[in-house]
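Anyone have tokens for Bile acid:sodium symporter family protein? Sequence:
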Amino acid sequence: MRRIAMPSWLPVDPYILVLVSTVGLAALLPARGPAATGVGAASSIAIGLLFFLYGARLSTREAVKGLAHWRLHLTVVLSTFLLFPLLGLAARGLVPWVLTPQLYTGLLYLCVLPSTIQSSIAFTSIAKGNVSAAICAGTYSSLIGMVLTPLLAGALLHSSGGFSAGGLLDICRQLLLPFVAGQLLQRWIGAFITRHKKVLGLVDRGSILLVVYTAFSEGMVRGIWHQVTAVRLLALLGVEAVLLAVLLTVTSIAARRMGFGRQDRVAIVFCGSKKSLANGLPMASVLFGGQAGLMILPLMLFHQMQLMVCAVIAKRWSHQAAAQATADGPPAPVGAGPTAPLNA
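Reply: yep, here.
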């Protein structure tokens, strides 16, 4: 999908604009009756195809090679699947005064998702960080999230009324099996997918748009949007801003105290503070069914927020790296001791 030029001071992801337009379409023309049945079936097929392609793209060989940097990857995993959920549980005290129970469930679901890959790599590259580590960290997070996200969702969301135990079986059938099939066939079709990654990227994004349209259409038909007011949405944005700030700060401080070099610290901060929209939207559709529209709202807002904030930080760290390189000569190799501080 051709990227739309945006002002440098407003790093809005064009795909988010397309997602918002899809939400608007669902609000104006929601699928009903036989149309809803057909759209739902198409959405299920699209989700299976999406995760099949995810599995076929992930190189198991490259993932195994990256295990040598296990301390970095363990730090990212702990941030993604331990620190995030703990902060999500702490936010339970905001219900019902700040967040509605439904929005809180969506926020907690956001906290158990894996890290994103593409944007983490992009920001790590801009900030002159360890790109290869970011690739492996994002890959491990996605692989682990295929199993751990449904388990965490079952354990944490069951009490919130937003998760059905049958959702675990649906995850295995609609997501995990296609993903495993893609992994098994990656040896034979991986090169083809790499050669046609632009076309298949459109398939990925088109599938997610279909999932979003289906989820928000069901929400409109069921009338769940009457439960959300503008004030509640502003409150949700505030809570998510605090959540992102805490993760960026904690990952930065922890990586420095653990003795990681500057390039590794960049990768840890960007990989450990993000959540995957591409994985989260299809999973929500499977887990929450007709309630998915409201559950993915916190994820969509957080996704855009993380892109805007991290774009600013990446540019700032890039300037710091350039200034340090000018003052000290060639940059230190990956994994070397601390150099310039990361001041988020």
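The radius of gyration is 20 Å.
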